[in-house]
Amino acid sequence: MSPEAFRDFLNTTHEALLEKGRANREWLEESGYAASAPAEAEQAYAAMDLYEEGMTEIRRYLDDQNPQHLEAGFNLCKDGNTKMNKAMTINRDSYEELEINFQM
C-alpha cells in the first residue's frame, strides 16, 4: 500500500469511527438508554473514547513514521474493544435476567 493510500485509509477509518461515536453518543443520551443502563453506557462511552484516542495516535505515524504510534494506537483500540465487549456482555446479561424474571 502506498503512503498516500495508507493515509487515505486511516483518514477514512478515523472519520467513520468519529461519526459512529457521535451517532451512538447521541442515541444513548436522546433515547434515555444511558440513564436506564448506566453501567453499560459507561463501558460504551469509554470504548468510543479509546477508539478515538487510538485512531488519533495511529494517525500520528503519518507525521513522523515512528512505529510506536502504530503500536500504541492499536493497543488503545484493542482496549476499546475490550470495553465494548464488556458493554455487550452487560447488555446480554440484563436481557437474560429480564427474560428469566418475565417467565417467573
Structure explained in plain terms:
The chain is mainly alpha-helical and 104 residues long. Helices cover 92% and strands 0% of the residues. It contains 4 helices and no strands. Helix 1 (3-30) packs antiparallel against helix 3 and helix 3 (38-64) runs antiparallel to helix 4 (67-103). The longest helix is centred in the C-terminal third of the chain and has 37 residues, at 67-103. It is elongated, with a radius of gyration of 17 Å. The termini are far apart.
Portion of residues in beta strands equals under 5%
Q: Rg, please?
A: 17 Å
- Tell me the helix content: over 70%
Count of discrete alpha- or pi-helical segments spanning 4 or more residues: 4
How would you classify the helix and strand content by structural class?
mainly alpha
Q: What's the overall geometry? A: elongated
How many E strands?
0
Distance between the termini: 58 Å
Could you tell me the mean pLDDT?
90
Oligomer: single chain
Order of helices and strands: HHHH
Low-confidence stretches: none
Main sheet record: none
Which structural traits does this protein have?
104 residues; mainly alpha; elongated
